[in-house]
Amino acid sequence: MTAELPFKNNGIVGNSAVMKTLDCQISTAARSDLSVLITGESGTGKELVARAIHNYSARAEAPFISFNCGAITESLLESELFGYERGAFTGASQSRRGLFEAANGGTILLDEIGEMSTSCQVKLLRVLQEKAVRPVGAHEEIAVDIRVVAATNRHLPEEIAKGRFRQDLFYRIAVLTISTPPLRERAADVPLLVEHFLSESAKTMKRVSPPGIEADAIKTLSLYTWPGNVRQLQHVMQRLVASHTNGHRITAAEVQDALRDVSLLNIGPQVPMVFREDDSLESFIDRILLGLYNHFRALGGSHSEAARLLRTNRNSLYHRVRRAQLRENIQAVSDDDEFLSLDS
Predict the structure, then answer these.
(1) C-alpha pair distances (Å), 57 with each of 4, 21, 101, 231
(2) Are 327 and 192 found together in one domain?
(3) Is residue 1 part of a domain?
(4) Mean pLDDT of the chain
(5) I want to staple 7 with a disulfide (CB 3.0 to 4.6 A). Which of 52, 204, 212, 306 is the partner?
(6) How many structural domains does the chain have?
(7) At what angle do helices 252-263 and 229-242 cross, to 10 degrees?
(8) Where among 246, 263, 280 does a domain terminate?
(9) Strand (E) positions, 51-101?
(10) For residues 315 and 325, what is the distance between their CA atoms, to the nearest angstrom?
(11) Residue 315: which H helix or E strand, with range?
(12) Residues 89 and 122 in one domain
């Protein structure tokens, strides 16, 4: 298997065991015309997988349309997906076809389908059952021939149990299921992804050639846990290329600096964001601060650097971290001389 999976213009890179499994799942899905549900954390490439399924299917020459269900209000979602007739509502000065009709013959990706309201889920279920859409304000239905691929970072069975997602719709969209692996489960692919994003970023920034990168820098990138997954790695490489000068190879120190600078914006599941039953607002904020601080320190950042990034002074940060540690019954241990010197 080559570094890039054998699908047209899909951009999926990797040759780890989990990616080989993903390759087989994409192949199986592409050969059928069944609905597919793609699950996985944010930044793991769910849309790339959906495009690969479409591009390798019998519908490849027809449209592929991606729609983010969580990026639009409920009141507009129906008109976007199903279209509307002139005069159907205030401001509808002319008829407009919806995305289902625009994707006729091809594939529509319903991204973040877990964000869709239950009322819209009912309407979507009818489209899947009848294979027809009725534009807002119309009296007649329009037949559509589309393949539906859905994607979500939510655990839909849990959403069903909580009454936030319809079970009958779940069975309609999850005839085939594919899970995109987080980057921490495919660390062996990081060198390939680094090479890919270096080249891609250099082209975007109109550089003559991508910069070189030291082996220690690649090792540092491979050891990082990547809470933001492949998307975060892409942004880090873009940042490194943007600051690159000709004839200079990217070093491990530069990688560490880049990771420190973006770490507070890409915390992901490493910081506890759940408000517990016994929480007060103060204890909740302390716990978030402690998670941010521990995550940054794990990257090798100093106490002073943490204070700078958190926009507070060193002493104030010291006392807040100590307080948070006491709340969580964590033994306050540090091998940082600078940190310990504040304990007076």
Answers:
(1) 18, 18, 19, 26
(2) no
(3) no
(4) 84
(5) 52
(6) 3
(7) 120
(8) 263
(9) 64-68, 83-84, 96-97
(10) 15
(11) helix 314-327
(12) yes
Q: How far is CA 117 from the centre of its chain?
A: 21
8 A C-beta contact, residue 135 and residue 97: yes
- The pLDDT tens digits of the residues spanning 207-237 come to 888 999 999 999 999 988 888 899 999 999 9
Which of 28, 68, 78, 15 lies closest to 46 in space, CA to CA? Answer: 68
Q: For residue 342, which phi and psi values (nearest 5 degrees)?
A: -80, -15
Q: What is the mean pLDDT of residues 271-286?
A: 69
Query: Nearest-5° angle of CA 201, CA 247, CA 213?
Result: 55
Cβ pair 99, 108 in contact under 8 A: yes
Tokens of 120: 């819209």
Rounded Cα–Cα distance for residues 83 and 101 (Å): 8
- Structure tokens, 167: 């079970």
39 and 145, same domain (yes or no): yes
Residue type for 289, please?
L
- Alpha-carbon distance 224 to 298, whole Å? 10
- 8 domain residue, yes or no: no
Q: Per the structure block, which two tokens stand in for 251?
A: 């070093």
**pLDDT greater at residue 67 or residue 278:** 67
